[in-house]
Design goal:
The protein is an all-alpha fold and about 350 residues long. The protein folds into two domains: about 70 residues; about 270 residues, no CATH class. The chain is built from twelve helices and two strands. The chain has a two-stranded antiparallel ribbon. The termini are far apart.
Length: about 350
């Protein structure tokens, strides 16, 4: 009994040391977004709470903790309270298979890429449940929009990730990074890289595809009726998903922690460069928000189904054909043949 209790306490300590840095990262990512947006729009941004506004995320967190949690009249109470928890738990489970270095990964699995893709897809249930349980037409309409949007772009994302797995010869995220020591997958999959960037914007409901949060039509979308910590959970899940997608982009296309110096051929493994790449893609989310206007909903669906889906499927078939003809279907050697 004592041994079981000891193992349980060790597990709780490991989970706490894993989750706490993630919460801090997400909190300060929200501050970075407000600072960058302020610079783009030529205003000051947060600068009062703490030095240069650095304590603003903590102040926002404390405010949300002490706000009153309001449950709408005739709402499905159990489902209403469960939906944000489901979103947050799925997000943290995603982080468990994301490698931070060749040796630092909480749970290494041969199908970790599929695991991330599957959990990202499951978050749709949290969104549709929150909209339906709120007993609000605005929230329900926002949930339907978000669900249709995420499902539409997940199809293209799936084909792109299959292309990455074929080139690496594995669905393991560590092996995908190892396969890019000499050549990043950005080069053989260059068109898919840009489709992936657009698709993750739609997957995370970010500008210019933030149709579930079109204020002039449906207020704030599926989380309209949420307040206090339930709203904070949705907020944390959204920004955590943005960081997950930024990290996944770096792992699948930008070589992870590897970089090859041109003309010398020297391969460097650097944790600092890995973080720098993630911050670059995370900055892309903010930059797009401050630059592009919102799309119409029919334009959003048109891009996903009539352009991205046929192109990614065609590219997948083309890639398999090239691999079969040149290499006997040994995916890890395709970058060598492409650049001979």
């Amino acid at each position: 009994m004592f041994l079981i209790l000891k193992q349980f306490l060790i597990f709780l300590l490991q989970a706490f040391t894993f989750v706490l840095p993630l919460l801090i990262s997400v909190a300060f990512y929200t501050l970075a977004e407000r600072k960058v947006m302020a610079a783009i729009q030529r205003r000051i941004g947060p600068n009062v709470v703490g030095f240069a506004g650095l304590l603003q995320p903590i102040a926002d967190g404390v405010k949300l903790i002490f706000k009153e949690a309001i449950i709408p009249f005739k709402a499905n109470r159990g489902l209403f309270l469960a939906a944000p928890k489901v979103m947050l738990v799925l997000t943290f489970l995603n982080w468990s298979v994301i490698p931070f270095s060749p040796t630092a990964v909480f749970f290494d699995h041969n199908l970790s890429l599929i695991f991330v893709y599957a959990l990202s897809s499951l978050s749709v249930y949290g969104i549709i449940a929150s909209g339906w349980a709120s007993n609000s037409k605005y929230a329900f309409l926002g949930a339907l929009r978000s669900t249709a949007q995420m499902i539409s772009y997940e199809v293209s994302l799936g084909f792109i990730l299959v292309c990455v797995a074929i080139l690496a010869g594995s669905f393991n995220l560590l092996k995908i990074v190892e396969a890019q020591q000499n050549n990043w997958f950005l080069f053989p999959l260059f068109p898919l890289f840009f489709i992936f960037l657009v698709s993750i914007l739609a997957e995370t409901n970010r500008v210019p595809f933030d149709l579930p949060e079109a204020e002039a039509e449906i207020v704030a979308g599926y989380n309209t009726e949420y307040s206090s910590m339930t709203f904070a959970m949705f907020f944390l899940a959204e920004y955590s998903n943005m960081l997950i997608m930024s990290t996944l982009t770096v792992i699948c296309f930008l070589g992870g922690w590897y970089i090859k110096i041109p003309f010398i051929g020297l391969v460097i493994s650097s944790q600092f460069l890995y973080i720098l790449k993630i911050l670059f893609v995370a900055f892309f989310f903010i930059w797009v928000r401050g630059t592009l206007p919102r799309y119409r909903y029919d334009q959003l669906m048109l891009i996903g189904w009539k352009f991205f889906l046929p192109f990614t499927l065609s590219y997948l078939l083309f890639l398999i054909t090239v691999l079969y003809v040149f290499d006997g279907f040994k995916p890890q050697l395709i970058p060598v043949y492409l650049y001979k």
